[in-house]
Amino acid sequence: MADDPAKAESLQQFLAITGTTDVQAATHMLEGNAWDVGAAVNFFFSTGETGVGHGTSAGSTNANATQLRNSPVEVMEDDDHELQMALAASNTSNRAMPMMEDRFPQLRAQELAQKRAHEAQFVPDGFADSRATGIPENLRRFMDTDDDFGAPKYNPPSPSTMEARRVREEQDRAYEESLEMDRAKEMSKKEAQLAAQEAEKIAKQEAMRLAEEKEIRKNELNKEVSRKQALIPAEPKAGEEGVTTIGVRLQDGSRLPNRKFRSTDKIEVLYNWVETTLLQRQLEAGDVSPTKLFDLVSMAPVRAFKDRNMTLAEAELASQTLLSVQFRAS
Questions:
Q1: Could you give phi then psi for residue 223, rounded to 5 degrees?
Q2: Last residue of some domain: 89, 111, 145?
Q3: Does the pLDDT value for residue 193 go beyond 70?
Q4: 124, part of any domain
Q5: What's residue 180's pLDDT?
Q6: Residue 149 has what pLDDT?
Q7: What is the pLDDT of residues 221-255, one digit of tens each?
Q8: pLDDT value, residue 32
Q9: In a domain, 289, yes or no
Q10: For residues 103 and 125, what is the distance between their CA atoms, to the nearest angstrom?
Q11: pLDDT tier for residue 128 given thresholds of 50, 70 and 90
Q12: Any idea what the CATH number is for the domain that residue 255 is in?
C-alpha cells in the first residue's frame, strides 16, 4: 500500500473524515469496500463507528459506546471533534477525489445535525448556545442555507385549524362564564343562608328580650294587684247598717260581680276594687300591657267620680248604685 499513492491517499482521507486512529482497521475497511472511500465512510458511520477503533481495544470501544449513548453531552463533544477533523481534511486536501472531498463534510455535518436535534432535549440550558460558537463559519453558512439545518420556517395555520381554535376558545370562555355564574349563585345562596341565620338569631334574641320584659312586667302587675287588694277592706257583714251595693259595667257590655261597701269607705276603694279586678283578668289572658286610666261614672244622673277622697256617703251614692267604666283617651 505504501507503494500505491492512491491507496495511501484514500487511507488518509478515510482517517481524516472518520477521525479514527486505527490504521490497520481502517485499511481493512477500505479493502472490504474496494478502496471506495465514500462507501467505506458510509459503512463506518452506519455501523455506529464500531468497525474501526480509536486507538483503544474492542472492549474499551464498546464500553465507551455505551457511555456515549448514556451521555448526550459527551456524544456531542466527540462529534464536534470528528466534525473538526472532517473539515480540516476537506480544507487541506488538494489531491485526488475532489468531489468526494466536498461531499463528505456535508454528509457528516448533516448526520451530526440530526444527532444534535435528537440530543438537544438532553442538553442543559445554555450549553447548546455555547457549543454553537465553535462551529466554523463556512459550515455555519452551509447549515443556515440548507433546508435541513436552517431556522424553522413559519407556516401559518390552516383555516380549519383557526376555526377549531376559535371554537375551542369560545367553548372555554362559555365554560368559564358558566363557572362564574355557578360561583355567583353559590355565593348568593350562602349570603342568603347567612342573612337568614342572622335574622333568626336576632329574632330569637328579640323574643328572649320580650319574654324577659313580659315576665318582669307580669311580676310588677302581680305586685300592684297584691298592693291594691290589701287596700280594699273586707265586705260588711250581713245586717250591718250603712251598706251600699255597687255594680260596675264595662265598655264591652260585661259586668263585674256586685260587691258591698260601707258608706264610710272612700271612692278610692271603688277604684282599687275595679282596677285589681281588671288587672287579674288581664294577667289571666297573658296581657301585660300598661293599665289604661279610667273614670267611674254614674248613669242617672251622669256624673264622674274623680275626687277619690270622698266617701260614698259624701258622693251621695244610693244603697244600690250601677257605675260604668269609661277609659280616658290616651
A1: -65, -40
A2: 145
A3: yes
A4: yes
A5: 94
A6: 53
A7: 999 999 999 999 999 998 899 999 999 999 888 99
A8: 87
A9: yes
A10: 33
A11: very low
A12: 3.10.20.90
Q: Which residue has the cell 276603694?
A: 269
Confidence of residue 130 (pLDDT cuts 50, 70, 90): very low
Three-state SS across the chain? CCCCHHHHHHHHHHHHHHCCCCHHHHHHHHHHCCCCHHHHHHHHHHCCCCCCCCCCCHHHHHHHHHHHHHCHHHHHHHHHHHHHHHHHHHHHCCCCCHHHHHHHHHHHHHHHHHHHHHHHHHCCCCHHHHHHCCCCHHHHHHHHHCCCCCCCCCCCCCHHHHHHHHHHHHHHHHHHHHHHHHHHHHHHHHHHHHHHHHHHHHHHHHHHHHHHHHHHHHHHHHHHHHHHHCCCCCCCCCCCCCEEEEEEECCCCCEEEEEEEECCCEHHHHHHHHHHHHHHHHHHCCCCCCCCCEEEEECCCCEEECCCCCECCCCCCCCEEEEEEEECCC
Q: Which of 31, 27, 33, 25 is nearest to 49 (CA)?
A: 25
**End position of a domain, from candidates 120, 145, 170:** 145
Q: Residue 102 sits in which domain range?
A: 5-145
Q: How many domains does the chain have?
A: 2
Query: What is the Cα–Cα distance from 282 to 273, expressed in whole angstroms?
Result: 14
First to last CA, the chain: 142
Q: Which residue has the cell 315576665?
A: 215
pTM of the predicted model, to two decimals?
A: 0.43
Record the cell numbers describing residue 291, joined without a space: 293599665
Tens-digit pLDDT profile for residues 281-324: 999 999 988 888 999 999 878 899 999 999 999 999 888 999 99
Residue located via cell numbers 265586705: 235
Q: What's residue 172's pLDDT? A: 95
Grid cell at residue 234: 273586707
